[in-house]
TrEMBL record:
Single GO cellular component term: ribonucleoprotein complex
CDD domains, sorted: Ribosomal_L10 (cd05797)
Pfam families found in the cross-reference section: Ribosomal_L10
Similarity comment: Belongs to the universal ribosomal protein uL10 family.
Entry keyword Ribonucleoprotein: yes
Name of the gene encoding the protein in the UniProt record: Mrpl10
Recorded superkingdom: Eukaryota
Keywords: Ribonucleoprotein, Ribosomal protein
Keyword rRNA-binding set for record: no
Signal peptide: none
Lineage of origin: Eukaryota, Metazoa, Chordata, Craniata, Vertebrata
Protein name (Swiss-Prot/TrEMBL): Large ribosomal subunit protein uL10m
């Protein structure tokens, strides 16, 4: 019966790693029950769930998976904070007010991060903001290219207009005739 229960727990842990984009590993130190309920409530508001795990269940599963580099984090009492979304900023904000829970590391979008890596990840702009910046930068390039291409022809047109104006004014054959050609070569 214990073996069947262990298999069930292992399957649940496998589902957690398969179904969530953010899995944070935290050290759990004893805390009053009402504080735990309050923390779970604040995390649930951001679609983050708290999962209590047993090391004897998770360690064998991790050792045979692509997440085996997380094994050193599972030495004491641990909890997992999991979410199908990457709600790193929100998670860190809640954990800041709970000294009994220490973030050790995380797996975000199949990338294993240390505590510092998680904090750095939280400082990154959102994907939508980054995409907007990229679209803006890409849209700027064609307009700059267009203005550069038009700039030469506009300058040439101005020089030719000046040359025609001088010719019409009767200055043909004067030493100033070479000036537009020199200006044209300089640009």
């Amino acid at each position: 019966q214990d073996n069947g229960y262990a298999r069930l727990l292992r399957r649940q842990v496998e589902e957690v790693f398969r179904d969530n984009r953010m899995i944070a590993v935290c050290q759990y130190n004893s805390m009053p029950g009402e504080d735990m309920v309050l923390m779970k409530h604040y995390l649930r508001k951001h679609n983050i769930e708290v999962k209590f795990v047993l090391n004897e269940i998770i360690r064998p599963m991790l050792s045979q998976s692509k997440y085996k580099n997380l094994l050193p984090l599972f030495v004491a009492r641990n909890i997992l904070l999991v979410s199908p979304e990457t709600k790193v900023k929100e998670m860190l904000r809640v954990l800041k007010g709970v000294p009994q829970i220490n973030l050790l590391g995380a797996c975000i979008d199949s990338t294993i991060l240390s505590r510092q890596g998680v904090e750095n990840f939280a400082k990154l702009p959102s994907l939508e903001a980054s995409q907007g910046q990229m679209v803006g930068a890409l849209a700027l390039l064609p307009s700059q290219t267009s203005s550069l291409l038009q700039g030469g022809s506009a300058h040439l047109t101005a020089l030719l207009d000046e040359h025609i104006r001088r010719l019409q004014a009767g200055e043909m054959g004067s030493p100033d005739e070479s000036a537009p050609a020199q200006s044209l070569g300089a640009h």
